[in-house]
Design a protein that fits this description.
This protein has 443 residues and is α/β, with parallel strands linked by helices. The protein is 31% helix and 24% strand. It binds pyridoxal-5'-phosphate. The site of pyridoxal-5'-phosphate has 17 residues, from helix 10. It is an enzyme of class 4 (lyase).
């Protein structure tokens, strides 16, 4: 069993995270429960920041808040000197409510609404990452209405394909995101942006995919973006001050996943920027990255209670937990793999292969197919590792299941950062129209 961060097994044979016995956490907060190892989150953030400091380049490490957006997480990002990416009014609101400095907020998205843009303009955020020609004109007009000039990056697709699952690659030409470099759209976007009075064009952004284990994709992207920058300088006399190479740095979910140390990715990127721009006698730009998964992913563990089991002799044994695709849709969406342990007997070797099912009315609601566990029994606690990114963030109320609480653990202390939804939260936005009330009253 692979233990991430501060996770360990204590003298009682229980899984412990951040110095907290997870069986105690289950008693106190109930299950399902998202547990986040705060020390590991901070460590990952520092790995990025330190590696960039070492490079000598100007930089921003923008936490992609979509991976796990809560006010407490925004507070940690702020304390760790990160910037913040947001993609919606909800993520922006979360950041602002948490007191995150607006100047370090970057707004992404391929369909920002006028209301969202106005909200971001009023907040004086640091940068808009513009995705398309319609947004370019809209942002310029809305900024003009407010008498503001705003910083922009243009999202480009450099034509680099990350070695990853189809659904999460975005750097290839056939993408809903960004201006294509190869067909000239990116060049025209620079030309247009440079002529818009209310936009300050800082540079370009590229994000080639997610859960990437190699450095070559980032090096290629840096090379293509540099080539584009030189072309733009020579043809349009426009110089980029910022190059943003996005996120996508991989983490270890299961055995066989081989991410590189964060410093290795950063060094590859900063070296590629230095050499590509240096060779072209181009003033070294500021480099921005946007890690999401690699900041919070391996710091998260989801704790469930096993409620039932079903043995189909010769076929498979299922165990069912008190959550599922509602708190972790990734296995159903992407066939993502996870590892788990019986948390109240974490010292016992795995001796049985079972499939971990959720409690939703979907046959596809399976969290782990063929999971090796130590004889799981009803009432046991199951800890699924590496659920910090894109779990809580993607959680739903399907089957009207309540979203779990989130606790941050550190040095033996646990703090609630998101409360479990109540049954009243579930019906909180429901409305019964008057005419339906009359019908039922008439009976
Ligand atoms: C999703 C996303 C990220 C973060 O990706 P991770 O794989 O979580 O690091 C960064 N930038 C953009 C534009 C994204 O869409």
């Amino acid at each position: 069993m692979y233990l991430h961060g501060t996770s360990s097994i204590n003298a009682q044979g229980h899984l412990e995270i951040g110095g907290c016995d997870v069986t105690d956490l289950a008693k106190q907060y109930g299950t399902p429960l998202y547990i986040v190892d705060e020390t590991l989150v901070r460590q990952r953030a520092r790995e990025y920041v330190e590696a960039f400091r070492t490079s000598g380049l100007k930089f921003q490490v923008a936490y992609a808040s979509k991976a796990f957006s809560t006010m407490a997480m925004c507070a940690i990002a702020e304390q760790e000197d990160m910037s913040l990416d947001v993609v919606s009014d909800g993520e922006l609101y979360t950041a602002l409510k948490a007191g995150f400095p607006a100047a370090r907020i970057h707004f992404h998205g391929n369909n920002k609404t006028p209301d969202e843009i106005n909200m971001a303009l009023d907040a004086n955020i640091g940068c808009f990452v513009v995705d398309n020609f319609i947004e370019l004109q809209l942002l310029n007009a809305l900024a003009g209405d407010k008498g503001k000039k705003v910083n922009v990056l243009l999202r480009v697709t450099p034509g680099v394909e990350a070695h990853t699952h189809d659904y999460i690659s975005t750097g290839q030409q056939d993408s809903k995101f960004g201006f294509d470099v190869s067909n000239g759209a990116a060049f025209r976007a620079v030309q247009e942006a440079a002529g818009l009075a209310n936009l300050e064009l800082l540079g370009v952004h590229s994000h080639i995919g997610s859960q990437i284990f190699e450095v070559d994709g980032f090096q290629m992207a840096a090379g293509k973006v540099a080539q584009f920058a030189v072309n733009v300088r020579d043809e349009l006399n426009v110089t980029f001050r910022v190059i943003n190479l996005g996120g996508g740095f991989g983490i270890r979910y299961v055995e066989g996943d081989t991410p590189l140390p964060i410093a290795t990715y950063v060094k590859a990127i900063t070296d590629a920027i230095k050499s590509n721009f240096g060779e072209a006698n181009y003033p070294l730009p500021e480099i921005w990255v946007e890690p999401g998964r690699s900041i919070v992913g391996d710091a998260g563990t989801t704790l469930y209670t096993i409620g039932t089991s079903k043995d189909i002799p010769g076929v498979r044994k299922y165990i069912a937990v008190d959550g599922g695709m509602t708190d972790n849709p990734r296995p159903a969406l992407y066939e993502s793999k996870y590892e788990a342990v019986i948390a109240n007997r974490a010292n016992q070797a795995a001796d049985e292969t079972v499939t971990v099912a959720g409690k939703c009315c979907e046959s596809g609601d399976k969290l782990i197919i063929d999971c090796e566990l130590s004889k799981p029994e009803v009432g046991d606690l199951l800890a699924v590792f590496c659920t910090g990114a894109y779990n809580y963030a993607m959680a739903s109320n399907y089957n009207r299941i309540r979203r779990p609480s989130v606790v941050f653990v550190k040095d033996g202390q646990a703090d609630l950062v998101v409360k479990r939804e109540s049954l009243d939260d579930i019906v909180g936005n429901d409305v019964i129209p008057e005419r339906m009330k009359r019908t039922s009253a008439a009976k």
